[in-house]
């Protein structure tokens, strides 16, 4: 039995055949589905209609809509936040990305501004009418972060941090975007979503951000196949991250546009007033003029796709 | 010193610094370039203007143009050829793909109709005003095939068959499309092109067809990053093969469209009147109505890209 | 400045050249090393002598010694624990492995006996004079687990759970074995060790357990190259896990013996009285007669290696 | 129907059930096997007894024996050949490796001494009582090379050069060692062997030489799992190539020894009087003192393995 914000589900897992009508006749049972996938609740076999995420103030993420999330890799301070918000507003963008807790391979790298950076950012974004998405790295951060987050991001190194997934299912009603693992399979991403969903939080997004392969000419290998496959397998919205997917600034735009044609419901990318001075990921970050141009092109590309 | 159809090149490879003006003053030297890439002749650092392939009868493959190549995995017989040609003509497509020599993992699979199939196909296509592209598997086939081929294809298992590349450089003036190896790097693909180019044949196309990764939900992992990177690194046209890139019939179209946004100069894909009866690759082959629709969408997508 | 249990280290990270003798003349500085690796404290360039882990009661893990850790995938109950302990004692093995918190891809799989299972197991093992190694999955478990653990294991899905690594550095003096990530690089494993070491806990072991590749005939691809490379790069002991490395019961033994020849300081593998009835990983678990035989062969192989 | 040097085989491939006794009663049928693997003739399900390769003069490659093949990457000239032969004789080694046709990623690299180098080498080796193994790159080389070859090697870039495999099946009775593809699966290697075997040449060896993965600390990832799996699946001898498998000179020895424990029937590695002056692969080539030591250790390791 699984309780979520929208209702209770009774999930039966088993290999034996039995007459499911016996359940259907029981009191309080609204509907029965037989789902052959191992992930039950996030499967489109169970729920055909796409999930949409309502962020309030008329901002939604949904199939058939198109949402852009843009901002710096790391939140660096008030001036940077204000300039980014202004850039987004000028372009009609409703969601700003940024990191205050940064997972870093080396313990000696910049690890982010932490909770104070988050509070500052959240207040400034709220004033500007913009929602924020930011990474949560561990269970103990949830309580503190929760009032200042519009969407949680689970990073590629935490896709299989099952305790974190469990807690994001149980202890928040904020939406959660789960990134595919660094070398995660499509199925593993769906299972990770199943953790959060079955623990009680149905407001989920999935994100393709490139996978690790032998090819070293690019930071990761953006797997646009995965977007096409995910759109078939699950009712959850699918977001593309071309910045991490290719990792080279002047190639971000074509991969962003390609992601839309592959079926993405949204794109998240990195932009900064001065990428060369960014605390992290500058090599894959667009400056504002590049970002202006990309936004225009993405909107046109989405329009064309929807016309097909 | 490298002789090609368009002229002779003197390539100097070395690590020592010397005054290149000493060469520039020599008789008969038209121009000098210093190319830091290990592949010299196919690099855009050496030749900034894009190469175009003129197939005659007004049919060209070139940057800024867009060419579609479609047809079955295997050539199966006259009826199939005629129906495919008719389908292409209706859609204004100028190049038909098909295999008469099929590389197969198992020695017990269908290996193609061979040279007789090629002759039949070539004559029918010529009547219809359509060019053909087909795979050459070994050096000894070149002489026999040459009169009946418009474009040679070097398959993913032969990308590093260096003898074959050498011979295609020396013994034909027909264009050659080299597919990326099954787990080939972008650099290896460029080196393979350098083999053919430096052996004398400059009429080259490169093709991204998906790479081998750990992900098994799709046949290969289509690497659209590679298209963006190749378009920067080389002056040769770049073609996308979404059929092999994802390997699942109902996902071919979004990946084809995505490839165009990533920068492809053309798309090659598999179509057959009755995919379920095709001798090979039926699971990734479009039927004609699906193909009609995709052609329309690709043309629209290319138009939009060029408008940016 | 980094404080650990054995002393304080002053680490300078920077690109500028300066006269390091200026530091050497300062009071309280015992020694200075220049380490060009990005991981400083775990590098053999800094500390040439191998680290050894003293578990008490004469049980050590160290270069030039050889330690076997064996036991079930999951702790299942008292009877299973007692039988495994007896099997280990008969063979002179000093360390038992087992999981009480199990990371599982699907939320519907068995997730382990938890803290009560750990307490029971620890008491029984202590009576038997045997040390235990078990996986910790999250920060909040450390305090509760700490009295009942001899060695913590950080699993392949948590190799880059940097908060967990930080806490294992700060809040325990128990040894920690870090498994290589599912598709982690050798460098990333060393960086993860650097997290724990620089946070204060020097008692570290590294473990090669196979990586994710395109090859699907085996569960993972055991990377014995990594053992040879790690033994060169770091002073920490290196353990091999052939059970996960190949994932097929009847192939565990040859890979275990191969690991020793590649340079492993110890082997960890799965054994169970009745593998076919094990709650998890039965397909890669040895029964006791197979385990008896393997222990004998490993000891002989280690002896031979040391004679070279 | 498949004809080989040892007899004719009638292979039935199909999915329908029928009474195989109907075939058994036919004249001239000696034995019937049902083999569920897609590769039939190289499967151990069909032929339980291991294949052995008799090279003449008492030199055999076989399960339960152990053969070492050593020599330079490239044959460079008479002096180098003589010195290598002397080194091998001193150590009781019967097979020398070397390349006269070198597949090179770049067309500007050294491509080998060719047929004249082969003739010279073969004569010198014959005098010394030593057999040679060398790579054949294309069909047209077979006729010319055949009198001067003891074992053909098919390189990792030609594992799926099906025409070459076919011809090595039909037009020579010399043994053939097939290397696993650069990112070839175990099954693909077995299929490639099936090509040669079903075309008529049963004298086959398989070679694991490392696969391409994301890990860049080593040249390739030596997959010792593959050796264990191949020894189960096929009756053909399996050889390990630690030189290419790890690609780092001072790590070749531990990987060679590990390969033996994993089940290899032989080891092939690169040695040169002065590795730093070798025309190719110097970074992974042992000098003669290192080679002496390794041979001793390999023989001891094989002895121990056989004692188990």
Written overview of the protein:
Four copies of one chain form a homotetramer. Chain A is of the alpha/beta class and 308 residues long. Chain A has a single domain, classed as TIM Barrel, CATH 3.20.20.70. Chain A contains ten helices and twelve strands. The radius of gyration of chain A is 19 Å and the shape is globular. The interface between A and C is medium-sized, with 33 and 33 residues.
Give a short synopsis of this structure.
The structure is a homotetramer of 308-residue chains. Chain A is α/β, with parallel strands linked by helices and 308 residues long.
For this entry, give a set of tags.
homotetramer; 308 residues; alpha/beta; TIM Barrel; 8-stranded parallel barrel; 12 strands; 34% helix
Helix-strand topology string of chain A: EEHEEEHEHEHEHEHEHEHHEH
What fraction, in percent, of the residue positions of chain A are helical? 25-40%
Low-confidence stretches of chain A: 14-18
Shape of chain A: globular
Please identify the oligomeric state. Answer: homotetramer
In whole angstroms, how far apart are the ends of chain A? 41 Å
Mean pLDDT of chain A: 91
Determine the CATH superfamily of chain A.
Aldolase class I
Would you tell me the structural class of the helices and strands of chain A? alpha/beta
At the fold tier of CATH, the topology name of chain A is: TIM Barrel
Give the tally of β-strands of chain A. Answer: 12
**What is the CATH level 1 assignment of chain A?**
Alpha Beta
**Largest interface, with Cβ-Cβ < 8 Å?**
A-B, 43 and 43 residues
Main sheet record of chain A: 8 strands, parallel, barrel
CATH architecture of chain A: Alpha-Beta Barrel
Radius of gyration of chain A: 19 Å
User: Strand percentage of chain A, roughly?
Assistant: 5-15%
List the domain count of chain A as a whole number. Answer: 1
Enumerate how many helices of chain A there are, as a single number: 10
Give the strand order of the largest sheet of chain A, numbering strands 1, 2, ... along the chain. 5-6-7-8-9-10-11-12
């Amino acid at each position: 039995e699984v309780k979520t914000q929208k209702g209770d589900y009774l999930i039966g897992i088993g290999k034996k055949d039995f007459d499911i009508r016996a359940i259907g006749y029981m009191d309080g049972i609204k509907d029965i589905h037989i789902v052959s996938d191992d992930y039950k609740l996030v499967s489109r076999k169970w729920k055909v209609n796409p999930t949409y995420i309502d962020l309030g103030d008329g901002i939604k993420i949904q199939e058939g809509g198109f949402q852009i999330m843009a901002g710096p890799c790391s939140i660096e301070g008030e001036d940077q936040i204000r300039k980014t918000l202004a850039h987004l507003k000028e372009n009609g963008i409703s969601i700003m990305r940024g990191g205050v807790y940064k997972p870093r391979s080396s313990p000696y790298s910049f690890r982010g501004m932490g909770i104070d950076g988050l509070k500052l950012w959240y207040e400034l974004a709220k004033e500007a009418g913009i929602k924020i998405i930011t990474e949560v790295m561990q269970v103990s951060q949830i309580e503190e972060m929760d009032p200042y987050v519009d969407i949680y991001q689970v990073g590629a190194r935490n896709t299989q941090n099952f305790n974190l997934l469990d807690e994001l299912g149980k202890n928040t009603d904020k939406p959660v975007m789960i990134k595919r693992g660094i070398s995660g399979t499509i199925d593993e991403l769906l299972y990770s979503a199943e953790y959060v969903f079955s623990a009680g939080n149905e407001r989920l997004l999935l994100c393709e951000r490139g996978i690790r392969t032998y090819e070293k000419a690019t930071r990761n290998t953006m797997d646009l196949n995965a977007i096409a496959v995910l759109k078939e397998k699950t009712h959850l919205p699918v977001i593309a991250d071309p910045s991490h997917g290719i990792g080279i600034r002047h190639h971000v735009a074509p991969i962003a546009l390609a992601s839309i044609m592959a079926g993405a419901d949204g794109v998240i990318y990195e932009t900064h007033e001065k990428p060369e001075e960014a605390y992290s990921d500058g090599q894959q970050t667009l400056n504002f003029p590049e970002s202006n141009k990309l936004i225009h092109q993405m909107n046109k590309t989405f329009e064309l796709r929807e016309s097909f």
